[in-house]
Automatic annotation (TrEMBL):
Pfam families: HTH_18. SUPFAM superfamilies: Homeodomain-like. This is Helix-turn-helix transcriptional regulator. InterPro entries: AraC_XylS_family_regulators, Homeodomain-like_sf, HTH_AraC. PROSITE patterns: HTH_ARAC_FAMILY_2. It comes from the Bacteria. Keywords: DNA-binding, Transcription, Transcription regulation. GO terms for molecular function: DNA-binding transcription factor activity; sequence-specific DNA binding. Residues 194-295 form the HTH araC/xylS-type domain.
Amino acid sequence: MPARPLLPERVDQVLSRSRARAERRGALGDGLELVQWANAHDRTAYLQPGHHTLSVYLEGGWQTELLGQPGAHGSPGCHCLLPAEHESQWLIGSPQRFVHLYWSGSAWADRVVQLLDAEPRGMSLQTRIFAQDAALAGWAHAVTALDWADPLQRLRAQELSHAALDRLLLQAATPAQRGAALRPRGGLASATRRQLLAYVEAHLAGPSEALSLARLAGLAHLSEFHFARMFRVAMGCSVQQWIAQRRLRRAQELLRHGRMGLAEIALQCGYASPSHLSHSLKRALGITPSQYRRQVQA
């Protein structure tokens, strides 16, 4: 029986039919998705998947090679960049773990327009195999340390992944384009900023979806990518950092002025649990909630 011809297929679909195992997935919005994989003793082939892929090795990779490129192997921290039109075949040996970031062509085009004010068709991605970039290795380490099911940590994963794509885009840009993109510009209109900050304060204790990047960007009538950049310009920090700061400030106020129990304070401030609140306060101030309360009420 003749071999079945290869057909264009998403990278995650190819891996799902192979020996690879998806350890977890996280939809980030704006056409971005994270998947953490494990694989061993396998053979895979990609044929014009129709989306872009950033792959970073977390563990292993020493016995993984690209057919047609003998002698080159993966290793922890190195990355591969596979554009939408990419074609390749791979041999996987010993166990390895890796994280994939997928993004659509429309997400890339929007980024080119927003960040560089350039024509998307003139800004293509180039294939990279077993490349080294400390910043992208750091992205993989940071993003896989997060719980993608937790709304606030997923928001952080979004911000980190947007920054990784910004890096890839700036590496593909001309020096003049990079210089223009790195100069701060824009921000949020005063009325929009006031509306957003008031909304955050009013929803700290609400359902997690109320403070998602998609919801906040919708209030500002911007894409998630553009909103995240404009918020940082306006406020000097990321959306996730601002929400974390406001939750901590409210918890401090309740500890300082009331007799509310720790569980109720955690609930009022949007923390997942009292231990989550305790961990956040200790990381910020170096003391536990009970120690803080004793100090400020003494």
